[in-house]
Q: What sequence folds into this?
């Protein structure tokens, strides 16, 4: 088979150096060539959050997730096995699924009607002759994993290890049973900012006090994202809540990008009187999954480069980042509640989305303002706070390692 490169040689890039502890030089946020390298070396090489198990719960349910030039078709087969395929027909290369989600008995290419079974095998190809070898034209496979109701894919034929992330995240996220939830609301945004500014913004709460009034009702602005500050009242709350959560079988632990890896999971306490991240602190939907009590804090799950999620006792929010261009990023929010909860009876959608819709939109505005300033001739890399922006520096170090790694991916390796 001839091989086509997903990634050109690593040494073809001219990358300006960064001073440790400072933001990146301007081209990292604006240069289309560096953006192209970001796609190849970061997004095509790492595990990406693509969606939710509950969106592909039944055989034939599918989800198409696009990043850069690639589109991934995630589909559950008749045996309940989840597959991910390149959304590229093996005839003349057409996209097969053209909607973001749907349900199908088989995957039919709309161009000349080649038909693939849900597991990606070519089932029929009309007018191709009696001796046409259908077995040689199955869809190209992509690595896919389900983790406590979250679906991840990796375009690389040699994905980085996923199991340590699963081992860390699953015990804490599983009680929320997101695989038995439903998406109650989605919001998508085109944010005029480089994707790294959105991740940087997520990795600090320096801006929370000034920028997030709704979020700050229920959340402390320390104890987050590697902030080393201690405060007696926060420490006492943390100790009391950890004890209570352990008694509930929730296995709380703070796992923050161990050994420079791509994942974080941590159950954070909320302020006194707040049993969930709502405006008044009261639950806004029935308890998720196997939870028996409200007040399970806010379980944070972060996976670099493209997701952060918050699981409360009653609802969860996932955030999916998709880079579109060097100066444009698509952000998708999904709010999940238990699957048998009825809108208008068991929950009011506005109350479910109040805090995190407002907070997210505030973040997008902050990031657009940040990006606009970074484009100026006056911009020069600025210093991160050693108190409250350590996790931003850690993300940039992770990013720089991805960019430096020679990830030449051969399509001939793809099964
Ligand atoms: S390109 Fe798909 S059937 Fe022709
Ligand atoms: Fe924020």
A:
């Amino acid at each position: 088979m001839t091989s086509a490169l997903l990634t050109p040689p690593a040494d073809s890039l001219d990358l300006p150096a960064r001073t440790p502890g400072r933001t990146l030089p301007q081209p990292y946020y604006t240069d289309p060539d560096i953006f192209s390298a970001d796609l190849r070396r970061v997004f095509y090489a790492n595990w990406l959050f693509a969606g939710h198990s509950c969106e592909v719960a039944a055989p034939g349910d599918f989800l198409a997730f696009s990043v850069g030039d690639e589109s991934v078709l995630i589909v559950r087969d008749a045996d309940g096995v989840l597959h991910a395929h390149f959304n590229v027909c093996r005839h003349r290369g057409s996209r097969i699924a053209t909607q973001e989600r749907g349900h199908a008995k088989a995957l039919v290419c709309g161009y000349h009607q080649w038909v693939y079974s849900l597991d990606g095998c070519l089932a029929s190809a009309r007018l191709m002759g009696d001796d046409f070898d259908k077995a040689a034209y199955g869809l190209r496979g992509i690595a896919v994993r389900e983790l406590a109701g979250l679906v991840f894919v990796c375009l690389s034929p040699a994905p980085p290890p996923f199991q340590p992330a699963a081992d860390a995240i699953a015990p804490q996220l599983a009680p929320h049973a997101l695989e038995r939830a439903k998406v109650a609301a989605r919001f998508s945004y085109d944010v005029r900012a480089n994707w790294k500014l959105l991740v940087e913004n997520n990795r600090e709460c320096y801006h929370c006090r000034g920028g997030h009034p709704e979020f700050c009702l229920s959340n402390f602005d320390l104890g987050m994202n590697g902030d080393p500050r201690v405060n007696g009242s926060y420490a006492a709350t943390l100790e009391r809540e950890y004890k209570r959560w352990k008694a509930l079988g929730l296995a709380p632990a703070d796992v923050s990008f161990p050994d420079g890896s791509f994942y974080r999971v941590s159950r954070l306490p909320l302020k006194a009187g707040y049993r969930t991240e709502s405006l008044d602190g009261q639950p806004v939907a029935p308890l998720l999954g196997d939870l028996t009590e409200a007040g399970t804090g806010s379980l944070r799950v972060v996976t670099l480069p493209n997701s952060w999620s918050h699981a409360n006792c009653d609802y969860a929010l996932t955030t999916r980042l998709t880079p579109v261009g060097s100066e444009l990023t698509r952000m998708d929010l999904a709010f999940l509640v238990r699957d048998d909860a009825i809108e208008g009876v068991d929950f009011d959608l506005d109350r479910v989305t109040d805090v995190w819709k407002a907070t997210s939109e505030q973040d997008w505005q902050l990031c657009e303002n940040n990006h606009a300033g970074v484009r100026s001739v006056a911009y020069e890399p600025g210093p991160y706070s050693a108190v409250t922006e350590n996790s931003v520096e850690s993300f940039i170090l992770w990013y720089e390692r991805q960019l430096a790694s020679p990830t030449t991916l051969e399509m001939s390796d793809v099964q």
